[in-house]
Design brief:
The complex is a heterodimer of chains A (about 475) and B (about 325). With about 475 residues, chain A is of the alpha+beta class. Chain A contains eleven helices and 17 strands. In chain A, helix 3 runs antiparallel to helix 4, helix 4 packs antiparallel against helix 5 and helix 4 runs antiparallel to helix 8. Chain B is of the alpha/beta class. A five-stranded parallel beta sheet of chain B has the order 2-1-3-7-9, with helices on both faces. The chains are: A alpha+beta (about 475), B alpha/beta (about 325). Chains A and B meet through helix 4, helix 5 and strand 5 of A and helix 3, helix 4, strand 2, helix 5 and strand 5 of B.
Chain lengths: ~475, ~325
């Protein structure tokens, strides 16, 4: 006898999400991640100017807008054959990294923590899930850190704004580089802000994750899935922004392979989408479909992207966790995801410190060529939630097709054409619910992937030419 | 607080004086009502950027807003409750304070395919008994007429914005256009921007709580925030007057030739500045892209083309109509 439990709406995520689990007794035997929204940014990009890509596509997502700005600007750079001055590509990475710190801190405290810590019973903190295991002293400390995280995550955005102009939806990353000049006062301001953020990561974020890890050891098993991970490596260095700062690769069957974008295929069986001769079309009445997200697959398999995937790929290549520290390899469960995000925040902060040191006050930050040189241009980069790919097909005046594969499309993909579940669905299947009437496990497992349903846009084919802008 | 002083602090004063507003707001709320005013933050087809922008507020910051100014009874991004408990919280807020709660709308409302381009929840809830979807349109049609005030936050919520950009596959419209269809007589105050600056959102909320509806312009925006153009107050105005124009973002001159929308965009960005008041697009040597205009983004694109040539370069719908399917247009 099976029955279906629906957690809808799944709150404390970005955008509209519901989760359905099919339960036999207390065991989850099937799961469906239901993405609730569709706007169609790839359709909207058709006919617009190639240089519009960064500003326009970053409206896909308000919490990782600079991520889309970064990918859109890089795709445009490749279309125009731009070679960025050192300040230009360093600042691109500084802006992206600042946004990632903002995201990872907000995710842990604002979105994830109320799953594990009982907040004071005032709105909007009433009605939480239960199974709260911390004592009163620890609980009070966590709530205090929640309050501090509001200020610190805001400072990450302030740091971004010094060189980014404004955020959400930054302005300074334009085709050719970054528009804001490098001056000593700007560097100093960012160093001061970064120091506050680093103190918070060291004194609160990393220790708080370990507090949860000790109180919830079962979450090193709950949410486990097969170890298939995909990462194109953090940041992009050099004038053409081709060199990742951390290892890239595809990890499965215990081995690490280089990425070949030709192996990426999108499956639409479970999505309210259909492929037409030129464009997909939304198909909200399609039988058997249950989500607006498509199902990207690599070699036909579901791959997880994001902080845990980056950490796992880094470990597979170097044998160390970030910063040269050896230790046991990361697992594949909920608490591994939460811990990987925190470790990554510390790693990103180290990179940002170096980026600021490498800037040269007074030197150029932008160099844009007015002539389009590539018909198909692509950028595959790592952003807060995982791997993001932007690809555009252009003629000199306008975009003919635009393709976006977001991290959430990978992680929150539905069952594919072979009927195999997506990564979050895999993580939910097999879970034993302590109390099916109050399935707190579902939200905890789901949120550890940091869902952003505004980003769960569909995927379309670009005539197999995704690899023309080689990367990673 | 005298009304002129309020306008002075929020409309034209140095932004750091927002802290004075907070004190006054506390005093006012203690005097005026025993309980903090209830707020429902409702997200439709959005990028969550206006929620994130509000998290960037300073003086008052998000914690002060949550703990000491308003009772946020429903907010998809922040509330502890999930699933049916979240739906119950929404139902309870409406039941307990009909006609009193402030409804803040984020995101556009899609109308195509029966609204299923934005599904808020599945299964039984305030508006459904079966197992099917409940759409953003259905929830808003229920919440808005029962609200004390409706504030649309961000250009998607006010006029469709990027969610309704051409060819607008989801048939998204802004809140006012939607309410005109389903609840004539219910008006929304429009806080435009992509995203809305957190001060604009907080200031509009404060105005509504302390003085009632502010005076609005013809786009439904508070005049005390959107009364002047970016161009009028721009620090690079002298370059414009001398005819010195940048050829690409990054130049130190006027951004008019690289697409600046400042002359037709109403906002106080040049003196308010963004993110703890450190920068704004033209100070960052990029054009204003007119994100507070009702026509954003289609009316601003190509972003780097001069104002005069923007519209002719835009793709047209088959019927040649500009902005078909969009919310209200001037």
């Amino acid at each position: 006898m099976t029955r279906t439990i629906t957690v809808s709406p799944m709150t404390r995520v970005s955008g509209l999400l519901s989760i359905e689990v099919v339960v036999e007794g207390n065991v989850v035997v099937d799961a469906r991640a239901v993405g609730g929204q569709f706007r169609g940014f790839e359709m909207m990009m058709v006919g617009r100017h190639p240089t519009d890509a960064p500003y326009f596509t970053q409206r896909v997502c308000g919490i990782c807008s600079a991520a889309h700005g970064y990918a859109g600007a890089l795709a445009a750079d490749r279309a125009y054959g731009n070679e960025l001055p050192p300040n230009g590509w360093i600042l691109r990475n500084f802006i992206l990294g600042s946004e990632m710190l903002q995201n990872q801190i907000r995710h842990f405290y604002l979105l994830s923590l109320p799953d594990f810590v009982e907040f004071p019973p005032v709105p909007p903190f009433t009605g939480g899930g239960g199974d709260f295991r911390l004592g009163p002293r620890r609980t009070a400390e966590m709530v205090e850190h929640y309050v501090r995280s509001v200020e610190v995550s805001r400072k990450c955005h302030e740091m971004l704004c010094v060189f980014g102009g404004k955020i959400p939806h930054q302005h300074a990353m334009v085709p050719g580089g970054v528009s804001v000049p490098v001056t000593a006062d700007r560097i100093l301001k960012c160093l001061a802000l970064l120091e506050d953020v680093v103190s918070f990561i060291d004194d609160c974020y990393l220790p708080d994750v370990e507090v949860l890890a000790s109180a919830y050891p079962d979450y090193f098993h709950l949410g486990a899935r097969p170890p298939r991970f995909f990462s194109s490596g953090l940041f992009r260095l050099g004038p053409r922004m081709e060199i990742p700062a951390t290892p890239s690769g595809v990890l499965f069957d215990g081995r690490l392979e280089p990425i070949d974008p030709l192996f990426i295929r999108e499956h639409l069986r479970s999505s309210w989408l259909e492929e037409g001769p030129e464009h997909f079309t939304p198909a909200p009445d399609k039988p058997g479909a249950y989500t607006w997200a498509a199902a990207p697959r690599y070699r036909g398999l579901a791959f997880e992207v994001g902080p845990l995937a980056r950490l796992a790929v880094n470990y597979a290549r170097t044998g160390t966790v970030y910063g040269g520290r050896t230790g046991a390899p990361p697992g594949t469960a909920t608490m591994d995801r939460i811990r990987a995000r925190a470790l990554e925040a510390a790693e990103i902060a180290r990179h940002l410190h170096r980026f600021l040191g490498d800037l040269e006050p007074g030197s150029a930050t932008v160099s844009h060529s007015a002539k389009l040189v590539e018909e198909v241009a692509s950028a595959m980069v790592e952003v807060p939630r995982g791997t993001l790919t932007h690809t555009m097909l252009t003629d000199p005046e306008k975009v003919l097709r635009y393709n976006i594969i977001t991290p959430t499309a990978w992680n929150f993909s539905p069952h594919d054409d072979a009927g195999n579940p997506g990564p979050v669905e895999e993580a939910l299947i097999g879970t034993i619910l302590a109390d099916p009437a109050r399935p707190v496990e579902v939200g905890r497992i789901t949120r550890a992937f940091d869902p952003c349903m505004s980003c769960a846009t569909h995927v379309i084919r670009m005539g197999g030419r995704l690899n023309d802008g080689r990367d990673g | 607080m005298e009304y002129p002083e309020f306008l002075d602090i929020l409309g034209f004063g140095p932004p750091r004086r927002m802290a004075a507003l907070l004190l006054e707001l506390h005093r006012h709320l203690r005097r005026a009502c025993k309980r903090k005013p209830p707020v429902i933050w409702f997200e439709a087809n959005a990028c969550s950027g206006d929620s994130i922008s509000l998290m960037n507020a300073v003086g008052p910051d998000l914690v002060q807003i949550l703990f000491s100014i308003v009772d946020v009874r429903y907010d998809n991004a922040l509330m502890a409750a999930e699933g049916e408990y979240a739906k119950r919280a929404l139902e309870q807020a409406v039941r307990e304070s009909p006609g009193r709660y402030v409804l803040m709308v984020e995101g556009a409302i899609p109308l195509n395919a029966g609204g299923r381009f934005a599904i808020v929840s599945w299964g039984p809830g305030p508006l459904a008994t079966g197992s099917g979807p409940t759409t953003a349109a259905e929830v808003l049609a229920w919440l808005a007429p029962l609200a004390g005030r409706v504030i649309a936050v961000g250009t998607c919520a006010t006029h469709g914005g990027p969610s309704a950009a051409r060819p607008n596959p989801s048939g998204s419209v802004g809140t006012s256009a939607f309410l005109a269809q389903v609840a004539p007589g219910t008006r929304a105050i429009n806080v435009t921007g992509c995203p809305a600056h957190p001060d604009w959102t907080v200031a509009t909320l404060a105005h509504v709580l302390m003085y009632g509806d502010p005076d609005l312009d013809k786009a439904g925006r508070p005049l005390f925030l959107y009364g002047e153009t970016v161009h009028r107050n721009c620090q690079r105005r002298s370059y414009f007057d001398r005819g010195e124009f940048a050829e690409w973002p990054g130049g130190e001159e006027c951004m008019f030739q690289v697409g600046c929308m400042g002359p037709v965009t109403h906002s106080d960005c040049p003196y308010r500045l963004w993110n703890a008041y450190v920068n704004w697009p033209v100070k960052a040597s990029t054009p204003c892209i007119g994100c507070t205009t009702p026509e954003f983004p289609d009316g601003s694109m190509p972003f780097f083309a001069p104002l005069s040539s923007k519209r002719e370069m835009l793709p047209r719908d088959d019927d040649g109509a500009d902005g078909r399917n969009r919310g209200e247009r001037p």
